[in-house]
Amino acid sequence: MKFDKYIGCDLHQATTVVTVLDAEGKVVMETIVATEAAAIIRFLKSLSGPLHITFEETTQARWMYDVVRGYVSEAIVCDPRRNKLLGEGSKADKPDARKLAELLRAGLLRPVYHGHEATRQLKELVRGYETLSADTQRMMVRIKAIYRAHGIRTSGSSVYQQKQREQWLQLLSEPGTRQRVSWLYEELDHLRPLRKQAKMAMVAEGRKHQAFRLLRTIPQMGPVRCAMLVA
User: Fold this and answer.
1) Structural contact between residues 91 and 168, judged by C-beta atoms closer than 8 angstroms
2) What does each C-alpha distance from 151 to 157, 181, 224 come to in angstroms?
């Protein structure tokens, strides 16, 4: 009879630390595998019985989920913040592969990613829009910060308007500072059209989903918010 095995993975950029427990909680194997699809698949194929695997939500989690889901009975991407509360010792300690395997076997892990194919493209477009929005806002804050550092008030949004930029730049007496702000203005001019494109693509993809159309019937729910909620 082939017994269930519980696999905890501590993902890193180059390697993954792996612990395998049997149904009774005994350590079957502890090893290090290259964080590469082929190496991970070979490792899973070397194990017998129904396989249950878990790893924490990180930058590589979705990629890892796609790699393993065809070779295991269960794959759980878990919440690292909740795991800290479940682990023993300091809450600042990162649970290792063995602790993850133990939590998986005990049924204490809460999945945070389930591999929803239908919304995958929308998720990526939302991430792109959020990144460009954050970058645009950061650039605007940097520009105002330089003016404030020179005792120049920058209330409102006129400091960003192209027609008034030359007037604002002339308020900066140091040539090096003027050049620095000028570069930031150029970067802002590149970010704004990209952010607009990202927004249009995100909303267009969102409209393909029935949930988006239902959310739009709610008063004060705009297309951007609806697309983010669906994603």
Assistant:
1) no
2) 17, 15, 37
Tell which phi-psi region holds residue 57, choosing left (phi > 0), alpha (psi between -120 and 50) or beta: beta
Phi, psi of 13 (to 5 degrees): -60, -45
Q: How many other CB atoms sit within 10 Å of the CB of residue 36?
A: 13
- Report yes or no: 201 and 126 within 8 Å, Cβ to Cβ: no
Q: And the tokens for 16?
A: 């993954």
How confident is the model over 17-31, as a mean pLDDT? 94
The rounded distance, in Å, linking the Cα atoms of 12 and 15 is: 5
Give the pLDDT of residue 95.
61
Cβ distance 6 to 21 under 8 Å?
yes
Q: How far apart are CA 83 and CA 198, in angstroms?
A: 34
Query: Rounded to 5 degrees, what are φ and ψ at 24?
Result: -95, 0
pTM reported for the whole predicted model:
0.64
Grouping H, G, I as helix, E, B as strand and the rest as coil, residue 75 is strand
Residue with tokens 């607009």: 196
Q: Residues near 218 by Cβ (< 8 Å), separated by ≥ 6?
A: none
